[in-house]
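P.,

For your records, the input lines for the assembly:
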Amino acid sequence: MEQKDERLLLELGLTWAAVITAGFLLKTTIFWPYQLLLIFGTIVGFAFGWYNRQGKINAVKYFTDAAILITVAWIGYRVYRSTFLYKEVIAILTQGIIILQIIFSFNFSSPGKIAFIRILSLLVFMTSPVFAFIYNIPLALAYLLVWLGILRFQFKGFAQSFPEEAPGRYYSWMTSLTCFLLVAIMAWFISSNVYLGRIKQGVLLDEDLQDSGPSGGQDSNQADKFYSLQDDLQAQIIDLAAKLGSYEKSRQLIYLFSELIKESLKTMETDKAEIGLVDILKRQGAGLEGSAAAMTLAKEYLNQKNSRQMEQNKEGIVDMLKKHPLGMIDKIKIISLANKIQQASSYQQLKDNRRALQNTIQNSALGKNIKKDLSSFGRKLADSKAYEFYRRKIKKLDQRIPALSQPSERKIMDTFEDLKHTQSLNDFKQTAKEIRQLKNDQNISGQPTGKEAIKDLEEAARLKLDLIFAEKTEQVRSAALRKQDVGAFTEEFDKKMDGAVNAQIYLEFIQEFSGLSQQNKNNNLGLADDLEQVLDLKTEVHKQIEKNRLDNWMEKGVPVQAKQEVTESLEILEEQEKSADLESQLGELVDKVRGLEKKGEVSPAIAAGLVKAATDFKNLLEEKLQAQAELKSGRETDSSLEKYDYFEQLQQAITESSLNNQNKETLRALSEQLIQSQSLSELEEVKEGLDNKVSSLALQGAFDKNRKNQLNELKTLLANLERRIDNLENLTAAQISQLQGYLNRLQQAKDLRELENIAQEFAQAIGANPALDKQEQARMLADLQKLKEIIRSLLGKKVLTPEEFKEVNRINEKVNQVAEIKRQFLSSQFLTEILERIEALSAQDEKKAQELQNKLDQLRESKAPEEVEKIIADLKNIINKESEQKNKVKPKDEENQPEFKIYIIAAPLIVAPGKTVPLKVIAIYNNGYIKELSRDVEWFSTNPQVAWVDDFNFLRPLALGRTKIKVVYKRAVSQDTDVHVVEDLDSQTVQSIKREIGQ
Amino acid sequence: MLKTFRLKWFLLGFFFISNLLIGLKTTREFFFFFAYFLLSAVVISLLWLLLTYFSVYLQLSRKMISRVTEDDILDVSTQIFNDSFLPVFNLVLEDNFSCPQPNREKKRFFLGYLGAKSSREIQYNYLCSQRGEYRTGPLVVYFFDPLNLFFFKRSFQIYSKVIVYPKIFRIEKFPPLTRSVLPWFGIETARSSGDEDEFYGVREYKEGESVKKIHWISSARKNKLIVKQFQLQSFFGTTIVFNLEKEKNLGQGKESVAEYIIKIAASVAHYLTERGVSIELLAHIGEMVHLPFNKGQEHLEDILKVLAVAQAESRISLREAFEEFARYIPNNSSLIVVMSDQDYADLPRMVSLYSRGVSLIPLIVVADTFLPVFDKVKIIRQTKIKISNLVNMQAKFFSQGDNLSEVFI
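Structure tokens returned:
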């Protein structure tokens, strides 16, 4: 055989292998006739092509061309007649490609045709995962390896191989294989780490994802599925509620359900609601038909809800990253960490990734607000994931416990139920104790299954404790945010909080915590109580770890009696509240252990281990006590009323100042305006007004030269009068105090009329007093006259006292502070806006984006304030011009508005008459865009006598009964939503329900 | 590289983008994986190539002879030495030689592996089908990535020169040279026996030799049969003349009038040199070439070099060329004109050189036979008649497809 033929045969073989492998990656149930056709067709085709490789039968060229044309037409016709669902279209195309491959095989020896067959096989390969249930990985790898062979083979096509084979002739093959593996690993690494936002429904092809199994279409119809699940659950619950014997119970059930479906629910709240719901259903026993189904449905619903929340949080992160400029590496890092959190397979992994995510966000070059939002999303994501772990564990236990032997099952079941109901630290302590008891119970922990169940219980308890802790820290965070508003302090607080949450060793936590309590003290956050709870919770986490260590030591061979003794003294140790007591109790414990060691009941190694663990435990308790003490010392100063907030300080300064009411009002109004100003220019205007006001007040005081003299005169006069009054004889104490009262009133007179009146009364009082010496009377009246004049002059000029002057200065200072903060806030907002614009513009109009960028650079470099103002004005002009243009373009977009579906989102659809309920309507567009509709919606009620919806989207229930409402928006109609109008829940019932669920 | 792999880039891009889009659409991991697979393959290939390209230092050298005759095989040996500390995988060595037939100019060799600090020698050969002066090179090395997606090319400006002499055919019998020129040392000589004339020495008589050759005086003196040996002295001077006129160069490639003229001239020169005849070359090949009388191998080389590169670029007719040449042709010499029959009208002018004692041997290529004609024999006959009518002499006729050495029998 000639060399040329040999080459052709080899190429033929490789190509055939590629074609067949790709063909058999397709799902056999759909494609088997084509797969058979492919095998026989290509064999016949290649055989014919081989026979005709010299081109003896030239006509085959024309036959194949004709066949190709016919096949293409056939494909087109079939697509035209199809349902246009993407799977069907792809199936038709794939079948067409198979036929084309067979046709090409008849003429493969023509130049280029064989390469064409290979490329077609690549197309088949690409479509194959659409039809496979489980992707056939070995076959896919085989296919890729065949390609490697083809590519390798082409070396020889490019050049003749070296005449004599030298040593190391396999190296080249080895490198190719290595390279292939490297590529596969890299691809795997990227695909498992890089998350790309999925395109939503309706962009490229219309999807039919309903039948796509668990692996596909998770996104676009998720909302649909979720809400339909919610509807199912709602129907079930309402059904059950009707069946429940007691009216109270059905009320509770419906209330809990309405709690459960709230969108903004936090993990622990969800947990509470679910436990409550399940409890009610369980208590009814097996008699209640459908309760088991409802429980499973509720569980399924909550699982979905949790994963939905996770998805939303992650999307939130992705969206934020899309909106704000950030380096690619950081972006990928953040997204990949968020992905890892979502896909974490163990709790430790979750914790590690959570920490890494927070660090990455904090170290990234983003704005404070963005960082804050991002890390909040990250925390929520991690919390949801932790909740998922907890739920999984619970589910596992649910399955495991019934398999245990009778007596132990009951005990474990009790503990398990307690664990489920654990909602606070105290609950937890109780549960932990129970678990410990179980552990010490030889009957249970002796069995391997029991042991495993206990282990699971412990893990679940740990997860629960972490959940409680996470919830508490979130509370503290939001409380701190409310107190401090956005600023450097909040950032600082958040950072410390992150440190505290993520601390792995207790000492680290204590350090961070002392920072927190310091800040609480300095800024008067009043969070001492909350922080103490945080401290307690975290301490409990570490206590558990220490206790486990102690337990481990004790497991190693401490006799039962001794074990109990040690446990008891440990419990005493734990309850001590003073450092010295701790010390002494530890001493006792150590003595006890040593005693045991001497008796020979405990080996020296175990004794040493026990002592070490106990000392660590004591240190932990001691540190906690210190931290608590520090926190409490901070709480004492909480009462000092100085406000942290500059605005509040300003308000306080104004209120406390001795200015007259008019001035106060003006200042207050201006400062309100200042804080509410929306733009820098507005801010400057208000600030100027305030400055003018304040300085006009201040100037009055500063430039009045007579003021001091007059005040001195006033003082002496007052002193004289007082002395005179004191020296008056023949007067009763009551009379003297009356006169002094006049004097005081005179001094405090606010306006002239009052002054005149008081002076008049005073004069009359003096004159009317018969006991007074006439001379003395005249002197006093003269003094009074003088006093009156001075006060009149002072009042007329509205001069400030030094105290007032100080006050004005203080107000001025506060005004400046508030204005400065507001200015920073506004400029950062403005800059963010510009950055966003630049980002958006750079996609459309690079020139303009460049212009903006240049201006921004100038702004960064500029030093003089005038320059800054000028550049900002320029920037504004550019942006305004641009947004005008945008507005002009907008209507066009609205014309081509895509299709959408609308949903009524109403949490409590079980309402009492007379109570209005706000309803939310959202439209989910096909492109994934979700919009809340508030106007232009039209409501319909099947039974308007029972309930109707007003123009402001408030559901107005009128009478008891049932009705269905739906909403119409631009020809789209929502699904019917049931409304049950039931009697009002009285407060007592609510209270009882709340008590029930432990709120 | 982008240009070289346009199709490959296009396909990779197409498959990458479509996989990514399908992945985004269907959220199936596989499509993402495959898209990233393609991306990774490209990235790793390019990185590999960059590493190889910038880290590998190769030294190449080529060995070959510089003279070869048309239709002979030229053996080349190229040495490639990897002077870097890294081995090289998958490289292709390419050598370029413009002489061979189209599409065979490049020789490529695939080396799967070349170790660090090691060298390999590659031997290959070319068939030199066309006379001329050629350059081999440059040597080009293609660095391939292991997946054979792309390559980087590096040229090594290593050139070698080779001259391909025109093919020489054997001449059995050449028309006798009837005229000669006086040798420069002025001794009157005459041909006596047809043997070489210059005395060379004596030797013993060998059986079978002509008795006439015995030198009786020496035989008597030595008492054994002695023959005298003579060496031909170049008192025969021959001028070879041709004109490669572009207009009249009929035929294609090697089967053209000019090629035949060159071949005939080269063969005649070779024949005459072997016989010690002093040769002068007068030719017009776009410019006038004059190689004065000389003899011996070196002179033949000079002539062949001229003939190797000669191209039909002359814009003047043989007649005009001859006017130029005439003054170089000495009296009493032989003149060999290799010409096309299209120039037969110029023959009388040459014949007129008889007056100067120059004898003319026209070697005539029948041009019309180089055209696609049916009746070659008729054309040749007509030409022979035409020219024989014109001059009465012993002309030789050559036509396309002739075995040229047969013409001289």
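Two observations worth noting. Residues 182-196 of chain B have pLDDT under 50 and may be disordered. The first strand of chain B starts at residue 58 and ends at 64.

Regards
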